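INTERNAL AUDIT FORM
Audit reference: QA-55
Scope: verify that the stored structure record matches its stored sequence.
Auditor: D.O.
Record contents follow.
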Amino acid sequence: MEMNDAKLIEFTHIPPEAGVWRQVLDLGTRLRFRKGEEIMHGGERGEYLYYVHQGEARLMRTTLDGREKILMSMRSGTVTGETPFFDEVPARSSIVAGTDCVVYAFSRDCVLHEILPNYPALTLALLHSLASKVRVLCNQSVSLSLEELPPRICRFLHLRMRDDGGAPNPRVSPGLNQQELANLLGVHRVTLNKALRELEREAVLGPYSRDEVYIVDMERFHELALK
């Protein structure tokens, strides 16, 4: 992994393991969730591993004052629910459908007695997934403590650009409204709005919307994203 890639792993960059998991989909239960529905409730014991087949799932935590924080986002091809599944401690976070999605649920008995003994590549895939999530959470912690907000906004949009195909496209689809992005970045929506307006005044970005942001100055945008 190059250093620039390591800097970008902060929000949603959980590497997919689609090729490995597709070979065992017939062992799981196919489930459909509408946007906003809970896939796994906070407080549940981890009786299932979840494979996101289509759409996007989000790991969410609700604060004591009722605010929701997006910890990370998992797109198609990724697995979630590993921590409560393996440590058998009730989950403190919930898994919520970020879009309409299709998920495969694998029971504890299936994972421990069928998948892991017979598909050793999946053991490595699970370790890879957990390591990536540890890196994401560590980078988020450092970013919250040490980095200014405009570079973090650009880094998030850069990741979305890569998720949408990787080519330098001046039009990026964030997929989050301002409140959701503020929750992800761990700031108040007013603070986020000020930073977005600053990026507009500096002619780095156009107006922000959930569906599209136009990158006005691609060179400066990349400079901030990789800062």
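Auditor finding: record pair retrieved intact. The domain at 147-226 is CATH 1.10.10.10 (Arc Repressor Mutant, subunit A).
Action required: none
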